[in-house]
Design a protein that fits this description.
It is found in: Membrane. This is ABC transporter permease. InterPro entries: ABC2_TM (IPR013525), ABC_2_transport (IPR000412), Nod_factor_ABC_transporter (IPR051784). With about 260 residues, the protein is mainly alpha-helical. The protein has one domain. About 75% of the residues lie in helices and about 0% in strands. It is globular, with a radius of gyration of 20 Å. The termini are far apart.
């Protein structure tokens, strides 16, 4: 007996047919996360390096933080979380997607039942799952080092992480879908380094760096998790929203699957 189309999502796939769209997306997200966890270079970038930076900023005097009287860990921890989001949503995704595109994997997957929307949905979900792991690991380390985040700011911090993820994932796809794989590798690493050093991610943003995607993400997390003015958090979230719209529109316009 044929299963009505509106019941497929609940009853599972028809014999010999494709799985429901959501199952395919979740399965692809799991594939993306497993690949990331098996890649030593990506683990270094997304977990090990942020953890080392957290310890250096909070427990050594190698880098002087402007803390305004707060414990160093309270300023360092939000910046490290912003760094982790940027590393996973931007650098890792740009490089992986760029080389998948060069190998023809994107074009091949787009012709399978997963489809283009499923492929993009799986990548986005995979990034979010990886970020949850990062928050658990880095947040636990920060708490062990004495971090005391402001509970009332957690909701805004979650909004900042989601907006930052959308913004940097769109930028990653824009690079990966328009440049050669080698150029994506070099460009993504160089841009990541420049934003870390002078983009207001780890250190409090000043001047124009507040209006960079990296500075806006870092400031949104710092102000929300240290009990700073809500207006400053709202401004940073507005900046992130603007960059997200720009990068998403550019990606939709210029992304090439092959």
């Amino acid at each position: 007996m044929r299963v009505p189309a509106d019941q497929v999502a609940l009853t599972g796939p028809r014999p010999g047919g494709a799985s429901p769209w959501l199952v395919r997306v979740v399965s692809h997200a799991g594939f993306e996360v497993r690949n990331l966890l098996r890649n030593g270079e990506q683990l270094l970038l997304t977990l090990i390096l942020p953890a080392l930076v957290l310890v250096v900023l909070s427990r050594t005097s190698l880098v002087r933080l402007e803390t305004n009287g707060m414990p160093a860990i309270d300023v360092a921890a939000p910046g490290v979380l912003a760094l982790a989001v940027m590393s996973t949503a931007f650098t890792s995704q740009a490089i992986a997607t760029g080389f998948d595109r060069r190998a023809g994997a994107l074009r091949l997957l787009a012709t399978t039942p997963l489809g283009r929307t499923g492929l993009l949905g799986g990548k986005a979900l995979g990034v979010l799952v990886m970020e949850v792991l990062q928050v658990l690991v880095l947040g636990s380390l920060a708490l062990a080092l004495g971090w005391a985040p402001e509970p009332s700011g957690i909701g805004l911090a979650v909004a900042a992480v989601l907006l930052g993820t959308a913004c940097f994932t769109a930028l990653a796809l824009l690079l990966a879908g328009t440049l050669r794989a080698e150029a994506v590798l070099a460009g993504a690493n160089l841009l990541w380094l420049l934003l870390v050093v002078g983009g207001g991610v780890l250190l409090p943003a000043t001047g124009l760096t507040r209006f960079l995607p990296s500075g806006a993400l870092g400031e949104a997390l710092r102000t929300s998790l240290t009990g700073g003015p809500v207006a400053e958090t709202a401004l940073s979230l507005g900046v992130l929203s603007g960059w997200t719209v720009i990068f998403t529109a550019a990606t939709a316009r210029w992304f090439r699957w092959q």
